[in-house]
Amino acid sequence: MLEPTSGMTSNQPVRACVSCKIQKRRCDKTFPACTYCTRLYWTVTDILFFALEGMSYANTEVRVRRGGATGQSLPNRYSMSPRAETSLLLLCVRLITQSHSAFVNVLPAQTPEYLAAKRFYADVEAAGVNTIQVLQAAILIALYELGHAIYPRAYLSIGVCVRYAIAFGFDGNGMTQGNMPYDWIEAEERKRAWWAVLIIDRFVNLGTPTRQLVVEDPESTTILPMDDEAWDSGVQGSNESFTLSSPSSLSMGRFARFAQATYLLGRVLRHTRDHTADANFHEEEAVQLRRTLHALVNLAQVEERVRQLEFCTQISICYSALLILGDPETVPSSENSIIEAIAKVACQIAKDFLLGLIVPLEKISPFMLHLIYHSAVIYMEINQETRSDESAQALNHLKKTLRVVEKRWKAAGVYLEILKAREITHFT
């Protein structure tokens, strides 16, 4: 529990809480939450907000260390008197990084942090705040809902992200030369936020590839996010900017690779929905997409070895896209070997995760779950036909991985329930 700073009474902060400030209500300033907010279950949020509003950090200089011994102050928008949108963003960062194991008997959609974030976002949006921090907070909320299978809210929240970004010029069309901010950090934040919107819009459609995307595919000239190492160190780097059509390079970074994989996934989803094209052209496009996806996987694996980076998420998206193209209902049976090969790779990723050879549990991405689930379905169907020990063991490895990941992302548990239902009904 936070304590008031010296010179303050235990129940009388110097400022009104953020919720009352936005709604222009009279606030009794009771600590840790005013009477109105307590009645609306805002306690957790206001504990955070009162702290951010200067109670326990009044004389603290916030800095972030970026690269070597160079300490750079955060931009003014993250300073010691944060605006409502900054408080909202920090709350959403806390939301997305918390382990759900702390709420064993509480559903992800009912945790105090989630409910507080949703209510506070609604307040900020109603107040007409139009900053990049609000969009970033909305993305984190949508990602939380995706990772914990909070549907249909996740799908609706993604639509909110898209429309907010477009309305206030944070999308690709708004990033014209005349609208580009002078601050390169702000420009990069906008770029990364818009790519994040594109990513979650495509990921949510993996289960239903024929559903219409909210955002159209970006142009081939769209600029990719800068290298993550340079971004994390606060260094602008060279003037070279990679686009979707840029030649292959080993200095793009993980987020840029993720953006490339997402772009190809979007093209695969569009290809799956398109039934108007000539049959020959449709098949030629599928062959080209498979070739490009395999090339991106190989390139990511090379960069992974050369730069000692982890590309499991990017590779998982590529393989998920290949599995959509390799649906047994839409391709010849001769290509089933490709599907089984991808499932084998996914099983190896699952084994490496269980052995602790790749990312730890708290850092595993929810974007890997669909590949693990889809591969489990493949092995389940193989096992129903062959009853082989190899397929049974692979299926067990994938299920065990989902059970472990469920401690971090509840969507893994939902996938397990679906697998159980398929086993019972032998649904194929």
Oligomerization status of the protein chains: single chain
DSSP helical segment count: 16
Unreliable residue stretches = 1-11, 40-81, 328-334
- The outline comes out as globular
Using DSSP, what is the number of strands?
2
Percent range of helical residues: 55-70%
Please report which band the strand proportion falls in: under 5%, 5-15%, 15-25%, 25-35%, 35-45% or over 45%: under 5%
Q: Compute the gyration radius: what is it?
A: 23 Å
- Please write the string of helix (H) and strand (E) elements: HHHEEHHHHHHHHHHHHH
Overall pLDDT level: 79
InterPro entries: TF_fung, XnlR_reg_dom, Zn2-C6_fun-type_DNA-bd_sf, Zn2Cys6_DnaBD
Organism: Scytalidium lignicola (Hyphomycete)
Subcellular location: Nucleus
GO molecular function, one term: zinc ion binding
Topology overview:
Blueprint: H1 18-23, H2 35-39, H3 43-55, E1 63-65, E2 71-73, H4 84-97, H5 112-126, H6 132-147, H7 153-167, H8 184-203, H9 228-232, H10 254-273, H11 279-307, H12 312-325, H13 336-354, H14 369-386, H15 389-405, H16 411-425
Antiparallel strand pairs: 1-2
Subcellular location: Nucleus
GO molecular function: DNA binding; DNA-binding transcription factor activity, RNA polymerase II-specific; zinc ion binding
Keywords: Metal-binding, Nucleus, Transcription, Transcription regulation
